[in-house]
């Protein structure tokens, strides 16, 4: 269009991260399928390049060019409650005019990144770099690039076994134990289920991993979602009294995150092992136990 040509964008902008060739990448988010981003950890520098491209023969008047590094928590069911918990800014260019394209190098040193990036059902935590050309009368020109943040967790010093009993009086009594209560994300759940008393016809038994995401600040409007990540069958057919059934569940195949407790007072992510027994009338008996998940390795 004629007007579009007259008032068309005088400039375009781009921003990239300087990543070493061996820097690992990870998927970005549920809703951005296939998109990957570089992984950074707490305390690492973040550096990159910014480009402001001015159309030939044009003049770009601006109120400054700056680059920001932002840590943000978004409530996906309430876009208005997006919260920047972290932000640092660097000025690249003072207010003035640009007559030609310009490239800038920028660096944020030893950046505090204690929270990991997280993409959930109702909440996401992201870190991104934003390049901004501030304009007086026109709208600002911006470009964002995301990064993934992952942090290693020291091996837990105490790691108790989990022992539990579940029963229905005079019908069913089982005892089960798992070898520990804290698992890294590529760990194996090893345990056993022991049938002390069986007077109901059990059809099968499964072990589920459940992720429970609680989003929203503690007062009132909390959103809780339970997501079953796996249903792992450990027994098919009826057990008999005194039978002992081994359990081995490999955690590698599942989209686990570490356990997150009250991140920025906005959300928590917890994991549970759920032992489910189904009888011939399709009644379900279950016992849930929280486990703690930690990150042993980046990516």
TrEMBL record:
Q: Which UniProt keywords apply?
A: Protein transport, Transport
User: Key word Transport present in the record?
Assistant: yes
Is the Transport keyword given for this protein?
yes
Q: Which domain of life is it from?
A: Eukaryota
GO terms for cellular component: retromer complex
InterPro entries linked to this entry: Arrestin-like_C (IPR014752), Vps26-related (IPR028934)
Pfam family example for this protein? Vps26
**Gene Ontology biological-process entries:** intracellular protein transport
Q: Which family does it belong to?
A: Belongs to the VPS26 family.
- Which PANTHER family does the UniProt record give? VACUOLAR PROTEIN SORTING 26 RELATED (PTHR12233)
Question: What is the name listed in the Swiss-Prot or TrEMBL entry for this protein?
Answer: Vacuolar protein sorting-associated protein 26
Q: Which organism is it from?
A: Zooxanthella nutricula
């Amino acid at each position: 269009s004629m007007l579009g040509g007259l008032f068309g964008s005088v400039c375009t902008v781009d921003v990239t991260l300087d990543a070493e060739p061996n820097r690992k990448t990870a998927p970005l988010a549920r809703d951005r399928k296939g998109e990957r981003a570089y992984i950074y950890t707490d305390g690492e520098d973040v550096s990159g390049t910014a480009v402001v491209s001015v159309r030939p023969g044009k003049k770009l008047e601006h109120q400054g060019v700056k680059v920001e590094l932002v840590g943000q928590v978004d409530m996906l069911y309430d876009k208005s409650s997006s919260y920047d918990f972290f932000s640092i800014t660097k000025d690249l260019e003072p207010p003035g005019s640009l007559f030609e394209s310009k490239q800038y190098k920028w660096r944020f040193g030893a950046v505090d990144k204690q929270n990991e990036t997280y993409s959930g059902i109702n909440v996401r935590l992201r870190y991104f770099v934003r390049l901004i050309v501030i304009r007086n009368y026109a709208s600002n020109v911006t470009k964002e690039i995301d990064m993934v943040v992952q942090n290693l967790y020291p091996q837990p010093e105490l790691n108790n076994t989990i022992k539990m009993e579940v029963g229905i009086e005079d019908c069913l009594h089982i005892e089960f134990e798992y070898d520990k209560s804290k698992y890294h994300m590529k760990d194996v759940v090893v345990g056993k289920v022991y049938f002390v008393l069986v007077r109901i016809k059990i059809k099968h038994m499964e072990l589920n991993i459940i992720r429970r995401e609680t989003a929203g600040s503690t007062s009132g409007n909390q959103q809780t979602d339970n997501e079953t990540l796996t249903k792992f069958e450990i027994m098919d057919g009826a057990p008999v009294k005194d039978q002992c059934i081994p359990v081995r569940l490999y955690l590698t195949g599942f989209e686990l995150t570490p356990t997150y407790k009250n991140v920025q007072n906005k959300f928590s992510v917890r994991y549970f092992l759920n032992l489910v027994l189904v009888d011939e009338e399709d009644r379900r008996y279950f016992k849930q136990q929280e486990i703690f998940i930690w990150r042993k390795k980046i990516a």
